Amino acid sequence: MNLQRTNHYLAECYQLPFTNEAGQVWVKFANKPPVIRNPRTVGRQRSLYVRNVNGTEDDQVEKFFGREVEVPFANLARRVKNEREKFASIDSQEQTALLKFVAAQAVRTLGHRRCVETQAGQPVDNNTFLRVMMRQLWTMSDRWLRTPPKLRFFTTLPYVGEHFIGGDHPVTVIHVRENPVWIPRDEPIAGITQLNDILTNPNYGFWLPLSPYVCVSVQPQDGVPSYLPPQPLEPQQVRQLNKLLRGQSKVFIMARDRESLN
Questions:
Q1: Could you read off the pLDDT of 95-115 as tens digits, one per residue?
Q2: Domain encompassing residue 26
Q3: Is residue 1 part of a domain?
């Protein structure tokens, strides 16, 4: 059986808006100098989504991602790349595709596998990782499709010099906890939180850069389904989001230009 063993945990269609005019993306692996790569070679691991079903290897998870997640998202990714800060509308099908993509990208990465193994206290096999991954993907997708969240879009434009970056684990989950003691400046703390605790919190946010110029935040509904066109972020806000993303991307970060990787 010819299984699909080249498994991208960072979908090629997601990388597209970060590519330059030649269709390539700048990537910085760990502490090595930045290099320019074709998206086909970035963010992949052999047999990551291959599972064992009754003694037989199976690639249905990889096919599911292609059919149900990546293909519906690809057209929206192209629109975001082309329209940039003028991205001003999103229909119901595009919104569904985006929510499925954010949910999938939050759990399909090597970073999430490390999280699962940290909670388990030991390495886990593919079957265990894929079972947890699909359960969490279903939990997010089901909740968001039954009770649509709001989508807030942001842009780095018209400012120059600060743009969104991507990485091997690009979904940043911000879980705000109300502190009984008011603190003027509260630094973010990285940690592991149960998914249901996040989804039931009225102040969560799933942040995903969609291009160097546009970012989306999935947040609890407040009566407005989406905020468009994208709202400009101050450069320091972009730097703060990029800092969080750098901190959780342990394999590589990527950008449209070399300067953004420094």
A1: 999 999 999 999 999 999 999
A2: 6-261
A3: no
